[in-house]
Each structure stands twice: as structure tokens, then as C-alpha cells.
Amino acid sequence: MADYKTPGVYIEEIPKLPPSIASVETAIPAFIGYTETAPDETEPGSTVKKPVKISSIFEYEQFFCTPNLAAPAPHETDIVVSIDLSKSSPTTVKKTKNMPTFMMYYALQMFFKNGGGDCYIVSVDTYPAAGGTPDRAKLEAGLTEIEKLFDVTLIVFPDAMSLTKDNYYGLHNLAIQQCANLKDRFTVLDVWIDDTAVAAGNPPHDNVGDLRNANLVQDPANLKYAAVYYPRIYVDLDFVYADADVKLTVKDTTGATIFDGNMADAKTKSNSAYTMAQRAIADYTILLPVSAAAVGVYAAVDSSRGVWKAPANVSIISAIKPEVSITNDQQKTLNVDANAGKSINVIRSFPGRGPAFIWGARTLAGNDNEWRYISVRRFFIMVETSVKNAADQFVFEPNDENTWTRIKAMIENFLTQQWKAGALMGASTKEAFFVHIGLGQTMTELDIWEGRMIIQIGLAAVRPAEFIILQFMHKMLAEN
């Protein structure tokens, strides 16, 4: 009680309600890669541009593109358009490969189209000269940079697919290790694809075998902090190109060449051919990894249902089809890996439902009963981080019964709300969770002497119905 010395009436407010816990954000990814431009601010001694938090593709263009927005991504320079008016399908487009080398701009379009919201852009450098490729060391520097950010919950490398196999999985190994160390984030990646083998006319590479055999993590227990997707998808986005870089030939109805140059020339010499070429390039599909669209789906599902809902059985917006068609039999060995447990979430097409569905909800720890599912792992991350942040206020408080009671009530109120929302199983809160704290329960006298307050929390998290089994049988007339 205050020390009153002057006569009068005084008001004291006595707190009766326990402190509350606010749920942390669950779907704020950090996209680490190359951009056209980047803000100049850097941390002292750092070569990585300061991470920028954005919430739309418009904001990305404001921060990371030239003022006229002419080149948000490197120009595609290997597009060839042929127009032969003597054929029934007069326009054809050829390109060395459908997948861009630097994909930040395309990845962000897929992220926002599929429900993404706030995210961080970590620019490790501006785009290199034509023919340049991503540098693993620079991407690693970007990964180190986000270690300072407390609200990042997902890690994605849009440009990493252009790395070599060893560098690709080595980079993601470091990302998963960061997730395991901080315990507040999750890595999303794709199966690395060897395009060079196919381009050279060699048999298709065993890309799935590369993933299963890769030394992806030093500690297998850390596989629960990542999920992988396969195959890549063709998407309905426009290539970024310059008219002068696109070769264009036009033949008349007799097959004679009437124009041979580039689109910049055609714009002034043959406007109709220029328009036809524009339309043809717009219809030409881009091949992209799924991870950016997947984290957009994470954000959408978290917002509409909750982080405990599996981010699967969802159609990917702007997707046209998977690169490879997967059957039920083929998915058996992808979804379940009896040896290493590295489950792969498949993108499949179902006639009448959608061209590209996320048809898997497992972490890379597919053989782990506790952490098999993405939704379970991410729900525990949310609860752990939320409770940890709320418990900070009790550091240096007396380690006694009064403090224990307040903390227990705070956590129980928070978990009750999660149970009411459908995140926890059980007909009552007693079945859904428990919170234990106290001398003789979670602490010994030695713990108290040494300043340790130990809280044990148990959660009965809901799990996805991955296998719905309908059992049918003949009914006998005498049966009820």
C-alpha cells in the first residue's frame, strides 16, 4: 500500500484478472534472394541490404524496382517468336528453359496471389550481369541477417534452385539448423531439379533420390523444422522481357519471310506482328518451384482456419499444371519414406477440381509420430513462442506460489481459447491440455535456490485426417 501522508480520498485499482497471452503471427516469411535494386541501408559490417517488410506486390515494386518499373526482374533474353501466317496455328514461341534464373519477383507474385500478407524481403545483392547465377555465400549472408528478426516464421530462397545440388541442400541445411536453434520458424523448400541433364538429352535425373540421399541435416531430429514440395508448376504469369531482346520472324501466307528482326523493330514496322508476338509470349507459361506459393497458402489457411489446419487439399491460384503428373502409386513412395523418413508433399492435378492441388501435409520428419505433420509443428511453434514472450514479464519475479498461480492461470486461459477455436482435441480442457508448475511438481528446492522456474505444458493437438477410410459391407435383412 502507498504511503499516504496528506488527508484526502485516494483511488487504488486492484488487478484481479491474470495477464494475457497474445498469439504471435504464424505466416511471415523471409524471402532471401536477389533484387533489381535495394535500399541502401546496411548494418555495420554487413554486405546484406537491410530486410524490408512489405505487404503487397506494389510495395515490392516501390522498394526494389526502378522508378519506371521497367525491369522488376532480369530480362529474359532467349525468347524466339515465329509467326507463319500460312499455318493454322501461326505463332510459336521457343525458349531455352521455362524457369527463370532469378525468381524473386515471380515468387512474390505467387505468394500474394495465394493469400500471402506481410513478409520480409532480404536483398543479398542486385541482379548480376547477363549469364550470372546466384551465389550461395551471399544467400547464406541473407540467412544470417534474418536471425536478428524476431517475427520471421518461414524461410524461403526463391533463387536457390539455380544452385548446384550440393550448394542447394547445403544452404537449406543451414536454414533448418537456424530453425532448430531459434525454435520459432520453419523452412519451406522444393526438390532440387537437375535441368542440365534433361537439356543435354540425358535420361531424367533421379531428383527425389538426390533429396533422400542428401545430408540435409546434421541431426535427423531437426527434419521436423522443414517441408519439401514436388514437382514444380507451370504458372500463368508474364515473363519480364525487353522488346529488343526478343527475336521475331514473320512469314506470309506463301511461306516467304517478310520480317526478321526483334520485337522493338516490329513495333514500328509491323504493328500487327508485334501484337501477335506479345500475345504469344503472354500465353507462354513460366515454370516455378512451389515453395513461394505454398507459404502463401500457409498464410491463407492460417487466416481463414488457423495454424492448426493442414495447408493441403488447396488449389494453387495461377497454377496451370504440375511439371510432372503424379499417380496414386507414385505418391506412395513420395509421401512415405521407410528409410530416411523424408516425406515429399506432392502437387497433383485432379480433373474437375483444379489443375494443381497441394496433396500432402508432412514435414521432412515423415516417420516421426510426434512431428509428422506441418500443422502440428507450426502450431507448437506458435504456442511456444507466444507463451515464451508472455512469460518474459515474470523474469526476476519472486519464485513463489503467487507467481506460479498467475502464470498457470495466464497459460490456461490462452490454451482454453485455442481449444475453443478447434486447435486442441478433447471434450473438455482437461483432456485438451495440462499446465503444471510448482514445488514437488516441476521443481525441486535446488531448482528454486538456483533461480529456475519450470513449467510443463502438454497439448493434445489436432492432426489432419490424412487417410479417410470408408468401410462398406453388405447389410443383412435381419440386422438393425
Describe this structure in words.
Helices cover 31% and strands 18% of the residues. The chain is of the alpha/beta class. It has two domains: 29-68 and 100-237 and 287-376, Rossmann fold; 395-480, no CATH class. The strands form four sheets. The protein has a nine-stranded mixed beta sheet with strand order 2-5-1-6-7-8-15-16-13, with helices on both faces. The chain has a four-stranded mixed beta sheet with strand order 4-3-10-11.
User: Helical percent range?
Assistant: 25-40%
The CATH architecture term of the largest domain is 3-Layer(aba) Sandwich
How many β-strand stretches? 18
Q: And the CATH topology of the largest domain?
A: Rossmann fold
Note the main sheet.
Answer: 9 strands, mixed
Domain count: the total is 2
Shape: globular
Based on secondary structure, the structural category is alpha/beta
Seen as an oligomer or otherwise, the chain set is single chain
Rg result: 28 Å
What spatial order of strands do you see in the largest sheet?
2-5-1-6-7-8-15-16-13
Low-pLDDT ranges: none
Strand residue percentage: 15-25%
At a glance:
The protein is of the alpha/beta class.
Topology:
Blueprint lengths: L28 E7 L16 E3 L2 H8 L14 E6 L6 E5 L8 H10 L5 E8 L9 H11 L7 E3 L8 H18 L3 E5 L4 H5 L7 H7 L12 E5 L2 E3 L11 E5 L5 E6 H7 L1 H13 L2 E3 L2 H14 L9 E2 L3 E4 L5 H8 L9 E6 L3 E6 L14 H18 L9 H21 L7 H4 E5 L7 H5 L5 E5 L21
Parallel strand pairs: 1-5, 1-6, 3-10, 6-7, 7-8, 8-15
Antiparallel strand pairs: 2-5, 3-4, 9-12, 9-14, 10-11, 13-16, 15-16, 17-18
Helix pairs in contact: 2-9, 3-4, 7-8
